[in-house]
Amino acid sequence: MKISQKIEQQSKEGKVWWSFEYFPPRTAQGLQNLLDRIERMRALGPEFIDITWNAGGRTSELTSEMVKTCQSLIGLETCMHLTCTNMPKEKVDIALREAKQHGCRNVLALRGDPPAGKDEWEAVEGGFVHGIDLVKHIRKNYGDYFDIAIAGFPQHMLLPPDELEQEMIWLKEKIDAGCDFIFTQMFYDVEVFIKWVHCVREHGITIPIVPGIAPIQTWNGFMRATSLAKTIIPQSFLDVLEPVKNNDEQVRKLGTKLVAEMCQRILAEPLGIRGLHFYTMNLEKGTKMLLEELNLVPRVETIKPLPWRQSLTPSRRTETIRPIFWANRTKSYLSRTENWDEYPNGRFGDSRSPAYGELDGYGVWIKQTKEDALKLWGEPKSFSEIANLFSRFCTGDLAALPWSDQKPSSETTIISKQLAQMNELGFLTINSQPAVNGARSDDKIFGWGPANGYIYQKAYLEFFVSPGLLELLIPHIERDSNITYYVINRQGDLRTNTHSDGPNAVTWGVFPGKEIIQPTIVEALSFMAWKDEAYELGKQWATMYDADSPSHKLISDLMDNSLLVNVVHNDFHDAEAIFKPFLKAGTEFLSKSKPIVNGH
Question: Cellular component GO terms, alphabetically (predicted)?
Answer without folding.
Answer: cytosol
